[in-house]
Amino acid sequence: MDDNPTTTDFVFDHVAIAVERITDLWPTFAAALGGRYVDRGIGSDFEWTQLRFANGFVIEGLQPVGAENGAFLHRFLARNGPGPHHLTFKVPDLDAALARVREAGLTPVAENRDDPMWFEAFLHPSEAHGIVVQLAHPGDDLPPPPPEPEGFPDLPYDHPVASLGRVVHAVADLEAAAALYRDVLGGRVVSTGSAVDGNHWIELAWSGPGRLRLLEATNGDIAEWVGDRPGRLRHLYFNHDEPSWVPDVHQVAPARWVVDDDVFSTRLVIAPVC
Predict the structure, then answer these.
(1) What DSSP letter does each residue of 84-120 carry, written as one string?
(2) Which long-range contacts (C-beta less than 8 Å, at least 24 apart) are formed by 101-106?
(3) Full-model pTM
(4) What are the pLDDT digits (tens) for 118-153?
(5) Contact assessment for residue 170 and residue 86, using Cβ atoms and an 8 Å cutoff
(6) Could you tell me which of 93, 101, 103 has the C-alpha nearest to residue 136?
(7) Residue 154 buriedness (CB in 10 A; 0-12 / 13-18 / 19+)
(8) CA angle in degrees (0–180, nearest 5) for 102-105-107
């Protein structure tokens, strides 16, 4: 079903996870799953570091810095603990992207053009089905990344690197979520299906490696897990040669391993490389 065209030039670039310390990500996502350092930087009250996986998809870690008063990441961690914070879509023209969003009846927030190398705006979780969505237009001449952080895991050359195959986001209203991520943010439907509990899902892709599976949360245990929220990031799905290397992993089926959601409030589902 991978024949319907992308409707925009948006790219699903990365998923961001809020943590107390960036180094908290390294044992699982770098040392075990082989994510490689891409870039890092400092914002007004946070630091960020990005790890890229074998298929090119990226996880970004966000760490708070500075005083707690008024700092968004301190507030997020105090309210939710470590866990998924936002999905980032890179856009070729922020004005055009925001016009498209507004035409759909949505209200972008926190628009910022102070940095000529990074224009951005956001959709609130109440409008993006339970998670922050960042729309970002990077500049044309981004500086080279700084050296990798001190102490970053130095892996042997033959260490397998996992692919981050998809982000799975459970939503209370599947059709409305699909309308946002497909019709407004330009994803193309690459597959659909139903889970054993009767919940349907729709998987979307963009021109880059990022894929998003929207999972209906109206039946069974997942409905209780989402509760009265509009949505909640369910898990990150990886392919990896050595699932048993991942800390706290347990096998739940012949070709399926899981790290439960007490790790960054995010389940990891890991399958062998086919």
Answers:
(1) EEEEEEE-S-HHHHHHHHHHTT---EEEEEEETTEEE
(2) 101/135, 101/184, 104/179, 104/180, 104/183, 104/184, 106/180, 106/184
(3) 0.95
(4) 999 999 999 999 999 999 999 988 889 999 999 999
(5) no
(6) 93
(7) exposed
(8) 60
Q: Find out whether 110 and 34 touch, Cβ atoms under 8 Å.
A: no
- Which residues, 6+ apart, have CB-to-CB distance to 67 below 8 Å? 45
* Distance, CA of 33 to CA of 271 (rounded, Å): 12
In whole angstroms, give the CA distance from residue 166 to residue 159: 22
Q: Are 123 and 108 in contact (CB under 8 A)?
A: yes
Residues in contact with 176: Cβ distance below 8 Å, sequence separation at least 6, in sequence order? 129
Report the alpha-carbon distance of residue 144 to residue 185 in Å, rounded: 28
Q: Domain 163-271's class?
A: alpha beta
Q: What value, to the nearest 5°, has the Cα angle with vertex 216 and ends 213 and 222? A: 105
Which residues have a Cβ under 8 Å from the Cβ of 90 and sit 6 or more positions away? 10, 11, 13, 136, 137, 138
pLDDT for residue 6 is more than 60: no
Q: How many other C-beta atoms lie within 10 A of the C-beta of residue 52?
A: 19
In the chain, where does the domain assigned CATH 3.10.180.10 lie?
11-138, 163-271
Percent above pLDDT 70 for the chain: 96
Nearest to 130 by CA among 263, 18, 228: 228
The residues facing 258 across adjacent strands are 250, 269
Provide the β-strand partners of residue 14.
58, 88
CATH architecture of 11-138: Roll (3.10)
